[in-house]
Structures are given as C-alpha cells and as structure tokens.
Specification:
The chain is mainly α. It has helices at 9-23, 35-46, 51-64, 68-72, 76-83, 90-105, 114-118, 125-136, 145-156, 167-176, 181-197, 216-219, 239-252, 259-263, 269-281; strands at residues 257-258, 286-288, 292-294.
Length: 298
C-alpha cells in the first residue's frame, strides 16, 4: 500500500477486531450483568472523564441505584452529591432526568430503540448510538473523540480530527460500519478501545497498532497538525474550579449551607459570585431564604 492509498473497510475490520479480542479491558459496563442501564450510566460518566476516575463512582452509583427507577425516586440533588468530583456535574442532572423519563415513559427499562433513546432528556446523538450499540448490539456509527482520531489518522491521513464532529466524519463512520449488526457493535467498541489505548492523542504507539501498515497518516510520514489549535483542558483558576469548590461544600453538608461557608472557599468575590450564579442558573444549586443554599431537592 502506498501513502496515497486509502484502506478499505475490510482491511481495517479484521485486524482491529482481532486486536480487541486480545486487548480489550475488562470494564464493568462491558460485562453482561451491567445491562442497558449500566451502559447508559457509564456513557454519561465517561464524557470528558478518564476511566480511572469513573470506575469507583460508577460502582458506587450502580450499587445504590441499580435501576433507573431507583435513581428517579431520589431528589436530583442526590445525583449531584453522588457524582462527587467527576466534573461537569450537569451530567448528573441530565442522568437523573433521563432516569425519570425512563421510569415514566418506558416502565423503568432503558428503551432499545434508537429514536426513543434520542428522545430522552440529556441524550444526544453520540449517547443514543453508544447505548443502542453497546447495550443492544445494534448497528450505529459511534463517534467519540477516540474513534474520530483513529479514523482521521488511518483513513483521512491527518493527525487530529476537527474540533467538532463534521458531516464528512459521520459519512465516513457509516461507510466503515460492518454490515452485520453484532459485528458493527463490536467494531464500535474495538475502534474506541484502539484510540483509548494505542492511537492516543499524544505519544501514540504505532508499534502496537494492528493497522499501522494500513494507516494513511503513518504512511504519509505523520504530517503535523495544520488545523485550528487544539482546545486545552485548563482548570486552575477558572470558573470551573470555583464551581467545583462550591459544590464540594454543598455535597458534604447534611443541610442547607450559609453564604459565609461558600464565601470561604474562594477569595475573589466577583468570580465566586459569578460561579455561584452559574450553578443556580444550571439547576445545580437552590437558593433559600436567609442566604442559605442547598443541592436541588426536586
């Protein structure tokens, strides 16, 4: 194969699937007992959060709320509390809202139909496709950051995909899907695992890659990224950090918290007030009379 040739789907499927059989991590949401709810919980938690941080929270979550109805029966604030330090806590509110809808609309069972999954609150195209594929073995293009990077390098010949998913990426993902449903679901998991473990954003290990000899980016000499600057993951000193500190106080409290307790976590008053206002606007914090605050009770 020359640097100008593009690998065909069949040239990619067999080696990636064989690699996955040998190297797939034993993750709790991949086990049969996880069920569709376990898969859904994992997909919410894994958004922008590494597996190592998700694992302990996931285990505790499923032990406490093994079914959607168990979570739906609790106040939304308990979901935020149990979310701990996973970050982006609005995901906890969205997962709670999805549990309520599953309980009310679907008798407490996560629906298998892609359109019904997509109609749940907090469920976007990626999560609906991931749950349908990983929980129910269906044929869908599952495009997370890892998969997009594998496809960008192996087929398109560039180091990184665009910052936001494009129509061209979706077309490519559909074109690469195996025809058989079960194989397509396995391919979705395998290509994601390859991006997570081998074809990583930095320090990729081509010596371990099952498709290195077919990779368009490698064959082209690994050209440097020439697109828009990659978005960073800055945290220290940002409103995100302040929001996290404020939520930590509220999570640990057994009752409403006075303003003074929140003021103590961050010295800069303007940024602190902005962060607190944002938490209230997002529904993560409820203001009460007398300058008190709590996690949402509904």
């Amino acid at each position: 194969m020359t640097a100008t040739e593009i690998p065909t789907p069949t040239e990619l499927h067999a080696p990636v699937l064989a690699w996955f059989e040998q190297h797939a991590r034993d993750l709790p949401w991949r086990r049969p007992e996880a069920g569709a709810w376990g898969v859904m919980v994992s997909e919410f938690m894994l958004q922008q959060t590494p597996v190592s941080r998700v694992l302990p929270v996931y285990e505790q979550w499923l032990a406490r709320w093994p079914r959607p109805a168990d979570l739906a029966a609790e106040p939304a604030g308990e979901a935020v509390r149990a979310w701990g330090r996973l970050g982006y806590p609005r995901r906890a509110l969205r997962l709670h809202a999805a549990a309520l809808a599953i309980t009310e609309r679907h008798g407490g069972d996560v629906p298998s139909d892609h359109a019904r999954l997509l109609a749940l609150p907090g469920i976007g195209e990626y999560t609906a496709a991931a749950v349908a594929s990983f929980a129910f073995g269906q044929r869908h293009a599952v495009l997370d950051t890892n998969v997009r990077r594998v496809f960008a390098r192996s087929v398109t010949g560039v180091r990184y995909p665009p910052n936001a998913t494009t129509a061209a990426e979706r077309r490519l993902a559909r074109a690469l899907l195996p025809a058989d449903e079960r194989t397509a679901a396995r391919w979705a998991a395998a290509s994601m695992e390859l991006g997570a473990l081998v074809c990583t954003a930095r320090n990729e290990d081509c010596s371990r890659c099952p498709i290195a000899r077919r990779c368009a980016w490698r064959l082209a000499g690994k050209p440097a990224h020439d697109g828009p600057a990659r978005r960073g993951q800055t945290y220290a000193g940002t409103d995100r950090q302040v929001r996290g500190k404020l939520l930590a106080v509220l999570r640990e409290a057994v009752g409403p918290v006075p303003q003074a307790a929140l003021d103590a976590v961050w010295d800069e008053p303007v940024q602190r007030a902005r962060a607190l206002d944002g938490l209230v606007a997002d529904g993560l914090v409820e203001p009460l009379d007398g300058g008190l605050y709590r996690l949402p009770a509904t």
